[in-house]
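quick one, 498 residues, struct below
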Amino acid sequence: MGDVILTMKGIDKSFPGVHALDHVNLEVRKGEVHALMGENGAGKSTLMKVLTGIYTKDSGTITYEGKEIEFHNTREAQDAGIVIVHQELNMLNHLTVAQNIFIGREFKKGIRIDDKRMNEEARKLFNKLNIDIDPTAMMGDLTVGKQQMCEIAKAISHEAKVIIFDEPSAALTESEIEELFKIIRDLREQNLGIVYISHRMDEIKVITDRVTVMRDGTYVGTLITKDCTKNDIINMMVGRVIYEDPKTHSMVPDDAPVILKVENLNAGKMVQNVSFELRKGEILGFSGLMGAGRTETARAIFGADPKESGDIYINGEKVTINNPQDAVKLGIGYLSEDRKRYGVAVQKTVAENTTLATLDEFVNGILIDKKKETEIAQKFVDSLATKTPSVDQLVVNLSGGNQQKVVIAKWLTRNSDILIFDEPTRGIDVGAKSEIYKLMNKLAEEGKSIIMISSEMTEILRMSDRIVIMCEGKITGTIDISEATQENIMNLATREIG
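---
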């Protein structure tokens, strides 16, 4: 690690009703990868928004390359060499790769855009990063991993000196994460300062040099990664011990009735002849590599995508599900992996989102009974320990983990007997994960039946009573948790059935 390039000292920021940052410190050196960690709502994103000029700090100092600075917008920060690679990609699918990289800074030949030169400059950037991407390809035709690489190239094109990676691996496959780490190591060799925000504890140990931990908007401390353990970091993040022991046996009684039965379900290439059963009070894990067909199966059952053939039975009766409304009426709730797109209306309040799936029960004449809506929303805020100033808070202002709790509250208000949790803890910190796990176990104990789709092996082994494994749109095996290991799950996840 080299000289200090960036120091944030005593940073304070308040919003109405929320003290988001309380005298937070961060120091980044040249040639280091510095992890920034904390639970959802700890203030990590707010701190980075203060740094890059999206928010104005209330007090504190920011020193960059030896000078005290304050940016008023992201353009000023980019021009100075501080760039964020966002978790939610900001690319335009109908433009080429090169056009995306240089958007707003296009090379011109006279009054016309010089696409040839943009392609050449993009190619130079990719060569510098050892990335094989065609600058003339349409952005929408690339995988999420390749799009992420384009975001990094775009950051480098600003002649970045400090790059902030915000949950960069959340939507990447294992091989794409390896590619990402190679690039980050190359950038470190080029003496850049790198801030790495992630909830994935195993990644932190592999790729970072130091770790700064935040909790509830405050600075907890900074550790040297190689000198600390995973538990050291977790304890600093949450202020309590969290146990993540795998489940050793199914919690479902042998005589538990079958609540949902799916027979020979077909829905395009990704759902081929899928059959399984879900019992009362069971957490049925769905495992497999990305693109195995797990989400597509869930969407076909829920009626979000059309099925071609197959039968669905609920409590022994054959049912017809043509759309999500049919599924909801039959007692199925679906928590999508993309909660911002399908789970919540982010510009509406916690209360409004909570009653979204049961609105007819809160209508009094032509008006919504706001008092009743507020009471039920407050009940779930309390029972789920959702962090929000009030039920009148807009969901967009909540952290990812708390947004997830609002989606769960929506389906609990509906009193759904079958809950499909698709990547329930994606982008959620270890503390919020533990709360979601406790909640899922409680729901199962109360007799709810849960399908849990997860790409995290530890989550599958910790939560499932049985595990269904998929590969290339087909079920390759079903294992009781008492017999499940990472090895036999991965063997089935990579075994195609002819």
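The domain at 258-493 is CATH 3.40.50.300 (Rossmann fold).
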